[in-house]
Amino acid sequence: MTKNLLSTTTLNNGVKMPWLGFGVFKVQEGEEVVNSVKTALEVGYRSIDTAAIYGNEEGVGKAIAESNVPREELFVTTKVWNGDQGYESTLAAFETSLNKLGLDYLDLYLIHWPVPSKGLYVETWKALEKLYKDGRVRAIGVSNFNVNHLEDLLANCEIKPMVNQVEYHPVFNQKELHDFCKKNEIQLEAWSPLMQGSLLNDPVLVEIANKYKKSAAQVILRWDIQTGVVTIPKSIKPHRIAENADIFDFELTQEELNQISTLNQNQRQFGDPEVVGRD
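-> structure tokens emitted (279 positions)
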């Protein structure tokens, strides 16, 4: 059983990544993001996930700097945005993100979307490989890559991705992609694991939650981890930030895991990787 907030999965290069992290998508730059990240760190989160396009890297960096958590205990992720893809522009975007975060290195750097119409992600990946070889980042990966994008990247890369961060929740559990990632030792990571709160009244989830005296959100996050998926819920409410982390004192049965998996509708709720970023 995954024991606590410090529990980690081991990526294909040996780096340890926390199973549960804190996401800051749509968290406003300034006081809101600083306070949210500080709260998360106080609760015990050690993995923080941001992105250049979120516009809050400086606030995340400020919260980290003002916390008492040693840098080596943290796992910080950010992402290169679509408009910065390409070899040289990715290297420049990395420096910008690192400066905004106020860090000397990153734990994980991701390509945010494949943007297949521009055909740049292989060049972008070569820049990530350089950053990795130079010791600027401990792990590199992708976000929102489908199987076809991963196959293309694997055929053209020197270092295979360590992580693929994608839309993943009970209504869209991406079984084919998850199986492909497991087979290729790429850790799947869930963004929007709670589907922005729209799953929290689902009767199956509520029934399981009542059994364990937990919330539906806690059941979903526990399902993520028990199905081998790293998860990064987001909230700006201190009680929710704490509640989302309180998932290590119960374990779902195989029957319950299967029950939750049957909620799948193979239907994206958010952006399609084949479309996002097209001109």
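The longest helix spans residues 87-101.
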